[in-house]
Amino acid sequence: MNATGFEPAPDQDPDTASAPGRIVLLTTSHRVAPGLLSWPAWQALHAADRVLCADGAHPQLPYLREAGTAVDETSPTAEELVGACAGGRTVVVVATGEGEPALTDGLARLAGSGRVQMPELELLPASYDLPGARLLDLVQVMDRIRAECPWSSQQTHKGLAKYGIEEAYELVEAIEEGDRDELREELGDVLLQVIFHSRIAEDDPDAPFSIDDVAGGIVTKLIHRHPHVFGDETASTPEEVKAHWLRTKAIEKQRTSVTEGVPLGQPGLALAAKLASRVRTARLEVPLPQGEGIGYRLLALAAHAEAEGVDPEAALRAAARAYRDAVLRAEQGS
């Protein structure tokens, strides 16, 4: 055994010593519970002549040993690993979280030198991330930031409220501009607000909740409001879907007024259109208030736009962007 703790393979019969053998680099995802490995991975582990792992605290090791797989906690060099495969042996390397870059780089250099008969090299993913798995990383990162960052650890829901508004507007702008890269980034910024507020909520002494509670709540709501997908109802048109949504929402909320749940702090045109939509959907006969001034004329325009299926807030933003472009052209003398 050398200084690395790696014991080289014993001398081989001359007839078999020239067989190069096989190296299997076994990778796993920390986002999947340890021990949940693919069947090809278990086959490779059971059939291997040796199984190596450089990290003695690797989360998979207890489960491998429980399954009867002996694991040597050692970190061989590329040369040592190639030597251990002599005689047709198979060596499985359980990769650490970094993926063993030093070892793979060393193997690549050996292969490129042309001086060594290289074993067969195989990269075998033993577990795969499920869709949405990176959200677990985000939760972990946010948890650490909340605990260790002097600024983030002091933030409150009220203190972050303005950022939620800003990020929502930036998301809308990215959608309207049609910039896909910007859209992806702004969606991440909005998601950060959700994760951040959920993490803050965990620290509440009286009514704590977590991101799992937030996700669980919206899952329940979505299932309940889509009986045509998860239940026995039928809906073949968007209008029928909307009818299902409004009906189940009304049962859930049990509101006494159509104006309940309409945030008064939203932009004026959006507020006017939302109120007009609630009135129209409820089939109420409520004349628009008459009065002097631009506000009442804007209210009438917003209600008319909503009735025509036009978002007045988006329409005004589009017109404002055209005005901005005209200003830029005028400034450039064109």
Can you characterise this structure?
By secondary structure, the protein is α/β, with parallel strands linked by helices. The chain has 13 helices and 5 strands. The chain has a 5-stranded parallel beta sheet with strand order 3-2-4-1-5, sandwiched between helices. Strand 2, helix 2 (61-66) and strand 3 (72-73) form a beta-alpha-beta unit. Helix 5 (134-148) packs across helix 7, helix 6 packs antiparallel against helix 7 and helix 11 (268-281) crosses helix 12 (294-307). The longest helix is centred in the middle third of the chain and has 23 residues, at 180-202. It is elongated and about 95 Å long.
Bin the strand percentage. 5-15%
Shape assignment: elongated
Tally of alpha and pi helices = 13
Query: Strand order across the biggest sheet?
Result: 3-2-4-1-5
* H/E series: EHEHEHEHEHHHHHHHHH
Q: What is the total tally of β strands?
A: 5
Structural class: alpha/beta
Question: C-alpha Rg, in Å?
Answer: 31 Å
What is the straight-line distance between the termini? 79 Å
Helical fraction equals 40-55%
